[in-house]
Amino acid sequence: MYNTSGNEFTNNKRGDISEVINGSLHLFYNILGTASPTAMWNESCGEQLLDFGRPEKIIIGVMLAIITAVTVMGNTLVVIAVCVVKKLRQPSNYLLVSLAVADLSVAIVVMPFVIVTDLTGGKWLFGEVFCNIFIGMDVMCCTASIMTLCVISVDRYLGITRPLTYPARQNGQLMAKMILGVWLVSASITLPPFCGWAKNVHTAGVCLISQDFGYTIYSTAVAFYIPMLVMLVMYYKIFRAARKSGAKHRFTDLSRRDRLETVANEALRMQGLKPPGVAEECAALSRLLNRERRNISIFKREQKAATTLGVIVGVFAVCWLPFFILSTARPFICGVECSCVPIWLERTLLWLGYANSLMNPFIYAFFNRDLRSTYRDLLRCRYRNINRRLSAVGVHEALKV
User: Fold this and answer.
1) Helices marked H in 335-381 — which ranges?
2) What Gene3D superfamilies would the database entry show (predicted)?
3) Which of 294, 179, 316 is closest to 234 using CA atoms?
4) pLDDT tens digits for range 316-362
5) Are the C-beta atoms of residues 186 and 147 closer than 8 Å to each other?
6) Domain-embedded: residue 74
7) Is 299 among the domain residues?
8) Fewest CB atoms within 10 A around its CB: which of 45, 302, 337, 395?
């Protein structure tokens, strides 16, 4: 998913590219807030590259290192939280662990090499063999992250709309098979360049995923467009179910109050009669209250699921959609030998996509009280009695309802 280029400078071409430097790269340097560096040229692909000075390299390196470190920290917290806290050790949270592992892999095995390449102006320094390995790791981890988000949206939808008939939430083996399927689908996109269908590009410092037309359409469709379509459909269905439930809840709210008041008045009026009559009325009132509490609980759960999935889909689309539009259009615009996309544009969209791996653990923690509490305890090194404290918080919240 990443394109890098060589660093061969030719003095006789400075005049030819000076206007392009002042134009296309001006926006990139303004965004970084740094002074304008010199430009470099790769003769094999005709790509314009960047040559940062020491201050620019320090600023960019620190920013990208912070993104990588926060990504590692956030996703590590997810894995530790689910493994340590009994309340979170549920089959439905196995998908969160799979997502965290994919995002953690992006941060550990992909981002460091991208940072080094960025700081050298875009030149790939690690050779042709590792170029293929690097592209394979990049595609595998990013696709697994995206596919897991897709499966999570389906899991949330089935868990809300079919709580009694959907078995995966109670069946750890079935959930494990779903996770295995995610990684196998990711492998189906990673392996073709190693099997002769599509060959990655590596010439004179360029490391670029295969630009074969058929492979590009297949990989972008399976890795992004199909999962995004599924997520949008699931969000629409959950949103529609929550809206129907909300309308029903509002419609029955006034009549519910009237019924409760009637039953309560009847119970008070019959207090002078024989005890069995009072007991029957109190039992009816208790059943009615329990049913209404259950309806309200379902309504709140649907509303929360709709809000959570809406934020997940929105952040996912903002992070990855621009990059995949660029990746799909690139071979049709530039050809299959190399990339003609400006380096600053490609780098910006690439890191925007990587930022999704940073945001995922914090999105789920924002909507999950148990994860938030566990994060706080882990960051404060309060490991002892962490399960007891979380159980006490759950009981306290339940008593407040």
Assistant:
1) 343-367, 369-379
2) Rhodopsin 7-helix transmembrane proteins (1.20.1070.10)
3) 316
4) 999 999 999 999 999 888 887 777 888 888 888 999 999 999 999 99
5) yes
6) yes
7) no
8) 395
